Amino acid sequence: MARAAGVSATTVSHVLNDVSYARVSPETREKVKTAAAELGYGPNRLAQALRSRRSGVLGLVSEDVATTPHAGRMILGADQAARARGYTLMLSNTAGSAGTDLREADVESLLERQVDGILYATMYHRCLQPPANLGKVPAVLVDAVTADGGFPAVVPNEYGGAAAAVEALHAAGHTRIGFLNNTEDVPSTHQRLKGFRETLDRAGLDGAGAPVVTASSDADGGYAAAGRILDGGNPPSGLFCYNDRMAMGAYRAAAERGLAIPADLSIVGFDDQELIAANLHPGLTTVALPHYAMGAWAADRLIDMIEAGTAGAEPEPVLLACPLVSRGSVAAPADRVRAQG
Amino acid sequence: MARAAGVSATTVSHVLNDVSYARVSPETREKVKTAAAELGYGPNRLAQALRSRRSGVLGLVSEDVATTPHAGRMILGADQAARARGYTLMLSNTAGSAGTDLREADVESLLERQVDGILYATMYHRCLQPPANLGKVPAVLVDAVTADGGFPAVVPNEYGGAAAAVEALHAAGHTRIGFLNNTEDVPSTHQRLKGFRETLDRAGLDGAGAPVVTASSDADGGYAAAGRILDGGNPPSGLFCYNDRMAMGAYRAAAERGLAIPADLSIVGFDDQELIAANLHPGLTTVALPHYAMGAWAADRLIDMIEAGTAGAEPEPVLLACPLVSRGSVAAPADRVRAQG
DNA sequence: CTGAAAGCGCTAACAC
DNA sequence: GTGTTAGCGCTTTCAG
To answer: Cα distance from A249 to chain B (closest Cα, Å)?
Structure first.
């Protein structure tokens, strides 16, 4: 290209990269730019990377890209943030079930490609043991934490999300609120429960005494759990569900009992899986998981680390807000209030 | 590294790459390998790429990675296929709404990074106008076709999927089958309708006379459409729905009319969105979109082109099968048959 | 103001 | 059998 523009490679480099200390005449600048435009010339980022020891590539290793619809949002957030700062994402899917050695190999392959940093993402909030070689470049954990810190990490504020759900029900006038929780031993199970109880306490309701039923985190589990809670003594008028799938089961349980939503029973879900939440009738009011924001935050943080050259491990995982998404499944507990009033 | 093993770089290259024509003594081989292992040495793929003019990277530009839960499956398929042949995926999200010039810039950025080929994916089956610079490297279209051919492309066999759905209903004994179709002017709308009618004809039923109602492709649309078809004269005992969201609406319409699924009404969806299909009650029998397979096929085909050095445009888009996924929403039309028998 | 030289890490061709 | 040389496309001194 340089040769074709009748000028040296150095000059081309200077012009096209807007090198600050370069003094190039306006005419030469023009000549280079038009030549570049005509030839459709683009720099070879590989050669640049080799020379500068900066690839401008972020490795994204994600466990089971496919298993959750949220994956896309996270990738998108990371991609946008990366792109905004001139970086590109390189993908590497890892099987969640794979052994540490295999996942280490995945990281290694990214390392060989000279990625400047690595985003290590899981598809649901969990605590993991990262591969040993992850520390070789700056790295950030997405939707995951390690037992011993060591990496900056970003996870959803599960506690706050549960609080938002309970507050929405309380604000609508509900005083008897139940929780359909998951049975798995994952952070979200515990933190959403904690958020549920403590928010009730703060509202002057009895958190410890509020009905909580656990089941598998799908529609069938939600159906069964809702059945148990609705058929028990003094059933709640508002139901907070561990996730949207359980809420979907709760809808069915309510329908079978002749309870209209939201007139007779208000429901709040969690996850904001649009496919479910927007297609239920009425639309499900739910708490959104901040996948886009987590992806974007992580990429930004990673690039900061890369450009600062610091390993700077965050002492605590960063919590991102889980905002309430209102649709139509929450209303005042009208009948009950009138009946009791 | 070479220097550290007391041997030349050439020799290191020869043993680590198993170069066929290299004659290296077994002792030297050992020496190199142990040195590499101890240093945790991995080759610099960037330098290799610069030298060999082969990056081993596939660009994946996808319109709106995030908007559909299927995105992950497609990416996963492409990633697995690519990885199996030593390639890695580099991501570039493009806004579906963006102009051609913007999408051209996205492709350009991948080109600058010297990708060996490009996978251009849309998130639902459509006909598109690819950016002009896409032709600069081998490229394959995923879930999309161009008006004028030019690129190999892979799309779902919508017609075959619709046929499978109708056949499942017919095999269960249904002779009066209706179709809830989408209103949008996209290939799937037309091809599923064609598959619906022609399969009925082949079964000796009246394809042209079969009831078809169109509505928006979500639960509300499905609810409305199902209502119209069920309240009409001589309502069908089997319903084929354009997608799972519409089927979800049809479930509600059936419930409101006291029709049990599948006893009183059999339903088949399309898309196999597990979030919906597996969580409805009963589980929705539906037709799966082959996103994983499309991703894998496309990556494989692309690598073939790259390694063969041919542009070899496929004359026709490749159709991948949409298999039926049986859950619990199809049964024999028992009541009706008895009533009429 | 502009260009020549050196070198990022690697490999192909060719010596020795 | 093994090492030397050259060069992939770029950027960074440093000369002119």
So the answer is: 8
